[in-house]
Amino acid sequence: MAESRRLPLQERRRYDAIVVGSGISGGWAAKELTERGLHTLVLEAGGPIDPAVDYVEHVQPYDVRFRGYGDRAALSRDQPVQRECYACDEWGAKFFVNDRENPYTTPEGAPFRWIRGRQVGGRSLTWGRQVYRWSDLDFEANAKDGHGTDWPIRYADLAPWYEHVERFIGVSGAAEGLEQLPDGVFLKPMELTCVERHARERILAAFGGQRVLTIGRTAVLTEEHNGRAACHYCGPCERGCITHSYFSSNGSTLPAAARTGRLTLRPWSVVAEVVHDPRSGRARGVRVIDARSRAELEFEARVVFLCASAFESTRILLNSRSAAHPQGMGNASGTLGKYVMDHHMLWGAGGTMPGFEDRRTDGRRPNGIYVARFRNTQSSPASKDFLRGYGMQGGSGRSRWNDGGHGADFKARWLSELQPWTIGINGWGETLPREDNQVALDPVAKDAWGIPALRIDCTWGENERAMMRDMVTSATEMLEAAGATNIRQNRPDVPPGLCIHEMGGARMGRSADVSVCDGNNALWEVPNVFVTDGACMASSACQNPSITYMALTARAVASAVERITRGEL
Known about the structure:
Elements: E1 14-20, H1 24-35, E2 40-43, H2 51-54, H3 72-78, H4 136-139, H5 141-145, H6 155-169, H7 194-206, E3 213-215, H8 249-259, E4 263-266, E5 269-276, E6 283-290, E7 296-306, H9 310-319, E8 344-352, E9 369-371, E10 390-397, H10 407-416, E11 422-429, E12 438-446, E13 452-457, H11 462-482, E14 485-490, E15 529-531, H12 546-565
Parallel strand pairs: 1-2, 1-7, 2-4, 7-15
Antiparallel strand pairs: 3-9, 5-6, 6-7, 8-11, 8-14, 9-10, 10-11, 12-13
Helix pairs in contact: 1-8, 1-12, 6-12, 7-11
C-alpha cells in the first residue's frame, strides 16, 4: 500500500472528515473524500498490514509450524467463533479477531457466529469477492410485500455508482441480459469448466431459459487493470494477494486516497462513540481508545462516516448516548439495532458428472458458478411457500485420489490419476427484515477496551426455512437435468452469521419515524453522520452485498461534499 501520513497525535486533532473503519466501505469513503478535496482521518481498530510479510498465499504447509492444521489449543482458547470460518486457519488466523478480547452474547438456543477482522483493510482481505448488482426487484420488495420499510432509492439511483465502482475495482464476468441481475462493466470472464458448460446448456433447455448458470461475477482481475496485475490462479485468496489481483482496500482504495496527500491513517484506534455537540445539534467528532495504550482521545471533523461493519457501526451509535440522544444517536424512530439480517446458505445438492474423465483443469480458478435468482421474479410464477428468492453458487472439479499409500508409486499415482468430475449447487437466500432480529448493548459484557459488547438476537424464520427446502429441491432438479449421478442433498445446520453478510441495524428509509438514515445515508437526526456499510441496509436481497455497500458509499460521499460546498454541513 502507498504510504499515508501518520502524524503525531499532538499535531492534529481536527479534520474535514473522519472515516471509522478501513474495510470495503471505509476504503471507498477514504478514496472518494480525499479525491474530492477533504483532509480525511481513517480510524482502524486493528493494526497495520505489511503485504510482504502478512500475505502468505504462497507459503506451503511444510513452511508453517503445524503444517496447516493450526495450533488447535490457541484457536479453541482465543478464536472459538472465528475458527468456524474456513479461512481462519494457520495461515489466516491473524486476519480474524480474538474472541476473548471482542466478546458478544446471544440468547440461549439462538446462536450467531459473528466473524470479524480487525486490521487495516478489514474483511476486504478475506472476503469472497463475489459482486452482483441489485435490481428493482430487490429495491421494491419491501414496499410490495410489506416486510420492512420501503427503500428510499431505486436501481436508477444506484446504477451510475455501480458503474463507478466497477470501473475502478475491476470485475470479471459475463453479461447475461437478466432483468433480476443487471449486467455491469466487466473484464473478460473466467472460463467455465467443460462440466459447467455442459450443465449450463442442459439446464437452460430443461427449464425454458429461466434458470441461468453463469460464471461468478468476481472482483478478481482477468487482465491488467488500473496498475494491478491479472490473477495467476494460485488459489488461496483468503491469505492475501501480493499482486493485488483481487480488490481490497489495501491494494486499491487506500493507496488511491494516500496519493492525494490528504489521507491520515491511524491504526490501533478503537472508536467508542460519536460525540454530540449540543450547541449545533451535530456530531463534533468521535471518542477513541488507543488499542495499545488504552489512552482516550477525541478527534473532530465536519462529517463522520461510519464504516466499521454493520454491527460495529450500530454498536457505536447505540453507545453514542447523550441528553439529546438517550437511547443512542439516530434512534428517535426506535429502529436502531433492529431489522438485522444475514443470508442463509449452503442448502442444495452435489453429484457426480460422468463422461468427462479425459478432461482436466489447469490452475485454481478463484471463482465458481452462479445461478441467478429464478423464484418470484417477473418472468417466473410466484412461489406458494415463501416470499423473495435466492441465488445459487457452486462449481465443479476433479480432485486427486486420497485413499492412502506411500513411496514412489503412490506419488506418481497421486500426481497423475484423478477422481471423477463432481459438481455442486447450493443456495444463498434472502432473509426478511424482522423487528425481532436485533442487536442491543449487553448490560454486563464489555470488550477489552471497556466498551459495552453487543447482545445479538437473530434467528431464521419460517420464510427462510421454506426457502431452504426449495433450494434442495431446485438444486436436485438442475443436477438431474444436467445428467449428474449419485446426487447428494445438502441440509447443513448453518446458524446466522456464518455467511458473513450481516446487514441492518441502522436502516435507510423514506421518513425519520421508521428509519435511522435518509436516502443519502445520513442520520435523520444528526445530518453530518453517514452510515454506508451493511448497517444501512433496509433489506438483504439474495446477492452478495459488498458492491452495493461500495456504491452507496461513493454516492453518499458525493452528497456530503455537495452539502459541504453549499454550506449545509
